[in-house]
Write a structure and sequence with these properties.
Length: 421
């Protein structure tokens, strides 16, 4: 697929309007929270989109329970220059001015509660527990093979270190969302058409890991283009990478599969696992190299979460058909949210600012490229897909943890968390 070159303004204007009523105030209207130019009524208060986005994220993700006042006195200044310094005081000011959390909660999910799927069960499904609860007892205590991935690790760290090069000069004048989209399309331009792809009926686990390794390189190259990511130390970048690469890879491949195969992704489970290979419903993964547990048992461990990916991710993507910019938005939001949850502190702080910038950039894109002024409902649906991906990822993480407890696999990696779920 060859994507057309970007034509997008980088004019700043932030948006997160899933539960707001917008107006068109005069250009002199001031945000009651931070003092910057206001863009309308957000949750009942005249405010800029950045503060509206911050308020909604805080309530939806219940972050206010974790915020602590940086000054220790709950009276930090909240202005255009200081609004990022203390999240608790910024949130409290929003509430004091009259922003209502109830409105945010009402729009928290694009699917009404009465229509939620019946299979939205516990994080670790009972079937997965059964699949792992009865491995051959002879596995316990057996010598385990350690696979050294230090070479791969060093290669990824080398990419994440911008001092070694790799930053595309074309991104120099782009905004945050444009950079993410440009780096995504640069890789996706290598995607083969369906007739040139190999259909796999059986995928040896060694070949699957080889595919993953190539995609890890892609994710590292995508990450390092972002100036905000480069604010982290090399050690922090690597931890960030390990927290999100597998989720990023899985979601990107599902979105690309929907783009290529349409309804076949849901109906016959057609899936572009890489730029070169296709899987369908009949395919099997051969785990025999890394476990003595029967293949059918290991497959059953992940069946439930894969089914959810097809129905809760691929199906909504079929209806939404996100643009490349929207896909880049979802991938970037997902990355900072997941890494921030794991790493906290500095990553959360930078992530808050990045999310404001992304909302800003997406608003500009909708208005100037798609001529779409009323996009609140669509944005809620896009983020609902992101939330589904994160939930399924957590489910797979729990499954993998149980697999380790029961010693389902006879192979460990020198860095176990790098291939987590």
């Amino acid at each position: 697929f060859n994507y057309p070159s970007l034509r997008m303004s980088s004019t700043p204007s932030t948006s997160d309007t899933s539960s707001e009523t917008s107006t068109s105030p005069a250009s002199t209207a001031i945000c009651k929270v931070c003092g910057l130019c206001a863009h309308g009524l957000h949750f009942g208060v005249l405010a800029c989109r950045a503060c509206a986005a911050f308020f909604r994220r805080t309530v939806v993700m219940e972050r206010q329970k974790k915020y602590k006042c940086r000054g220790g006195e709950d009276n930090c200044a909240v202005s255009s220059t200081d609004r990022y310094q203390c999240r608790l005081c910024r949130f409290n000011k929003c509430v004091e001015l009259g922003m209502t959390p109830e409105n945010v909660q009402w729009n928290r999910d694009s699917i009404p509660t009465s229509r939620k799927r019946k299979d939205d069960g516990p994080i670790v499904p009972a079937n997965d527990l059964k699949a792992m609860a009865y491995p051959d007892g002879s596995l316990f205590g057996k010598p385990r093979t350690i696979m050294d991935i230090s070479t791969l690790s060093a290669k990824i760290k080398n990419i994440l270190n911008e001092d070694k090069g790799g930053i595309d000069p074309a991104t120099k004048k782009m905004n945050t969302l444009e950079i993410a989209d440009y780096a995504l399309r640069k890789w996706r331009n290598l995607q083969r058409s369906e007739e040139k792809m190999e259909k796999l009926d059986k995928l040896p686990v060694r070949q699957m890991f080889a595919i993953f390794e190539k995609q890890m390189i892609v994710v590292a190259e995508w990450l390092v283009q972002n100036p905000d990511f480069r604010l982290l130390s090399l050690e922090e970048r690597y931890i960030y990478f390990k927290a999100m690469w597998n989720m990023w890879r899985r979601f990107e491949r599902f979105e690309m599969s929907v783009k290529m195969f349409g309804n076949d992704v849901v109906e016959i489970r057609k899936f572009a696992i890489s730029n070169d290979q296709i899987l369908t419903k009949e395919f099997t993964i051969d785990f025999s190299e890394i476990t003595d547990v029967p293949n059918t048992t290991v497959q059953e461990m992940f069946r439930h979460s894969m089914s959810k990916m097809h129905h809760q991710v691929a199906k909504p993507l079929l209806e939404l058909r996100p643009s490349s910019i929207e896909t880049a938005y979802m991938l970037t939001q997902m990355s900072w949210q997941v890494a921030g949850k794991k790493m906290q502190g500095k990553v959360v702080e930078i992530g808050e600012r990045v999310c404001d910038e992304l909302a800003n950039n997406l608003h500009s894109y909708y208005l100037k490229e798609e001529m779409r002024s009323n996009y609140a409902g669509r944005l809620v649906r896009l983020m609902s897909v992101v939330n589904s991906v994160k939930k399924i990822h957590m489910e797979r993480s729990m499954t993998m943890e149980l697999a380790r407890i029961f010693e389902v696999f006879k192979v460990d990696f020198s860095e176990p968390d790098i291939f987590d779920c």
